[in-house]
Design brief:
The chain folds into 2 domains: 197 residues, 3-Layer(aba) Sandwich (Rossmann fold), CATH 3.40.50; 120 residues, UDP-galactose 4-epimerase, domain 1 (Alpha-Beta Complex). Helix content is 41%, strand content 17%. The strands form 4 sheets. The chain has a 7-stranded parallel β-sheet, sandwiched between helices. A two-stranded parallel sheet has the order 7-10. A two-stranded parallel ribbon has the order 8-13. By secondary structure, it is of the alpha/beta class. It has 11 helices and 13 strands. The structure holds nicotinamide-adenine-dinucleotide. Nicotinamide-adenine-dinucleotide binds next to helix 1 and strand 5.
Length: 329
């Protein structure tokens, strides 16, 4: 029987890719986002596309009516520049997950609920050095997550767990680690490191001024997860029997300087770096420990960073070039 699936936040980067994948697999999709449809990253012609504010319980009740499964990817978020400066807005996303869970319980049709959590739930004292040990799922407690955004994610994970225990709703939670790829946010203040670096290198290539600004000293470490791996892992986790939050991230850790080296190689230019030590930088080191996902799913995100960045750079370069052409016209 054809499943009807709600993708909350389906107008966003990961949501848009998930909608495409679900439809390719034969699902009927209801896609809900608060942005006007012409601002969605991708718009499916066959999905039911609705604009609603899912912080409101009434909207959530309408959105979940009659669906079999819910993926909650709706969240007011962005890269470090956004989450360090908008902690209250980040925390208000708690209303989305809370009201979606409550609407699912009241409606009674949805049997499975996926929540997109984040590596920002991990305790700050486990991420103090660049050569950090990869973060295991249990490293989220004792709790000291990223202020604002991370607290909301950790609380919402707990909410999923208790709706499952108390009301029998099957909930699944993945902790995403820095997802990137084509069709992602690349400008405007909410972009994350990979697309921001791709944009800066593309601008350098197009302008001939080969110096770029880097946030921090460039020696902070991260791992980055390609969008196709994120979508695949999300679907596998949803279908699995894993009822605890699980890492969904690449374990290929690099410094931001190494990330820049890879992107400038792809672009075929050398870039000089101007370090801004006052800019938002986040934790010093972060990587994903994939023991649990390998053990439970026999799979882990495996797209090489250089391969994912090649696709991402090509796409971001085209956006930068066409936006420059529009400005010049
Ligand atoms: P995104 O910003 O592109 O997508 C989120 C979408 O939610 C946006 O389109 C936004 O308009 C929508 N939204 C916000 N408030 C809403 C509301 N009140 N009602 C309806 N829609 C609303 O972000 P993304 O990168 O696609 O992330 C998806 C999910 O994954 C989020 O929960 C995010 O916290 C989580 N996550 C993402 C990353 C990453 O690297 N991209 C990392 C960790 C966790």
């Amino acid at each position: 029987m054809t499943k009807t699936v709600l993708v909350a936040g389906g107008g966003g980067f990961i949501g848009g890719a998930l909608v495409a994948d679900l439809e390719a697999g034969g699902a009927r999709v209801r896609c809900v986002d608060c942005k006007p449809v012409d601002e969605w990253y991708r718009v499916s012609a066959t999905a039911e596309n609705l604009v609603m504010d899912l912080q409101l319980l009434d909207s959530c009740l309408e959105a979940v009516a009659g669906v079999d499964e819910i993926y909650n990817l709706a969240c007011d978020m962005g890269g470090m520049g956004f989450i360090e400066n908008n902690k209250a807005l980040c925390m208000l996303s708690v209303l989305i997950n809370t009201h979606l869970l409550d609407a699912a319980r009241r409606d009674g049709s949805p049997s499975r609920f996926f929540y997109a959590s984040s590596a920002c739930v991990y305790a700050a004292d486990k991420q103090l050095t660049a050569d950090i040990a990869p973060l295991k799922e249990e490293d989220a407690y004792p709790a000291m997550p990223e202020d604002g955004y991370g607290w909301e994610k950790l609380f919402s994970e707990r909410m999923c767990r208790h709706f499952s225990e108390d009301f029998g709703l099957v909930t699944r939670m993945a902790r995403y680690h820095n997802v990137y790829g084509p069709l992602g946010t690349w400008t405007g203040g909410r972009e994350k490191a990979p697309s921001a670096i791709c944009r800066k290198v593309a601008e350098a290539k197009l302008s001939g001024d080969h110096e770029i600004e880097v946030w921090g000293d460039g020696e902070q470490t991260r791992s980055f997860t390609y969008i196709d791996d994120c979508v695949r892992g999300t679907r596998m986790i949803m279908a699995s029997d894993i009822d605890v939050p699980i890492n969904l991230g690449s374990s290929e850790m690099v410094t931001i300087n190494q990330l820049i080296d890879i992107v400038s190689d792809i672009a075929g230019i050398d870039v000089a770096r101007r370090y801004d030590l006052t800019a938002p930088k986040g934790v010093r080191g972060r990587n994903s420990d994939n023991t649990m996902i390998l053990d439970r799913l026999g799979w882990e995100p495996s797209t090489r960073l250089a391969d994912g960045l090649a696709e991402t750079y090509r796409w971001v370069y085209d956006q930068v070039a066409s936006s420059a052409a529009r400005t010049a016209a």
